[in-house]
Design a protein that fits this description.
Elements (H helix, E strand, L loop, with lengths): L2 H7 L13 H12 L10 E6 L2 H10 L11 E7 L11 H19 L3 E2 L7 H8 L6 E9 L13 H4 L8
Antiparallel strand pairs: 1-2, 2-4, 3-4
């Protein structure tokens, strides 16, 4: 699949088939995250791949009872082992992880799969479920699987509304 088609096709899936993800597809998707850029090439992301049904249900509860999360055959838990701050004042970890997670989201589309960014969760509960150490930041959950729903594309702002050139003109 062409990159631009993957970008246009990606959506936030909230219903998944029970069909398992082929090992080769999952490996390619995870490889896309490994190849993502990171500040200072720290490669500070870590991913917990959760396929156990009980743990997926526990994670859905920890995600403010968003039970659709547990319908995905895999939940990727994105973490950062970095607390550095860039000179601009932003933390490196969540930015690096977001880049890698979007690589995952687009690679998933190319493989015929779907994802959903989940930022509404209790990190301490996720940490306890998966045995994640206190010094590691839990940044994102991402269910991954074959979609059972239809693509839903929300309206997007026009370029003219979000882009200006040379100076702030909004």
């Amino acid at each position: 699949m062409d990159l631009y088609q993957a970008i246009k096709t990606r959506y936030s899936c909230r219903s998944y088939q029970s069909k398992q993800i082929e090992t080769e597809k999952l490996a390619r998707i995870l490889e896309s995250a490994r190849l993502a850029p990171s500040a200072k090439n720290l490669q500070d992301w870590r991913f917990v791949v959760v396929s156990d049904e009980k743990k997926r249900s526990q994670l859905a509860v920890a995600a403010y009872e968003q039970m659709f999360v547990a319908t995905a055959p895999v939940i990727l838990v994105g973490c950062s082992n970095n607390d550095h701050t860039m000179r601009c004042g932003e933390k490196i970890g969540p930015i690096d992880l977001s880049i890698a997670m979007e690589h995952i989201a687009l690679a998933a589309v190319a493989e015929g799969l779907a994802t959903c960014w989940i930022g509404s969760f209790y990190p301490e509960k996720v940490r306890a479920i998966l045995g994640i150490p206190e010094n590691v930041r839990v940044v994102e959950l991402m269910p991954l699987g074959y979609p059972a729903d239809k693509e839903t594309h929300k309206p997007r702002e026009s370029l003219e509304k979000i882009v200006c050139y040379e100076n702030w003109k909004f």
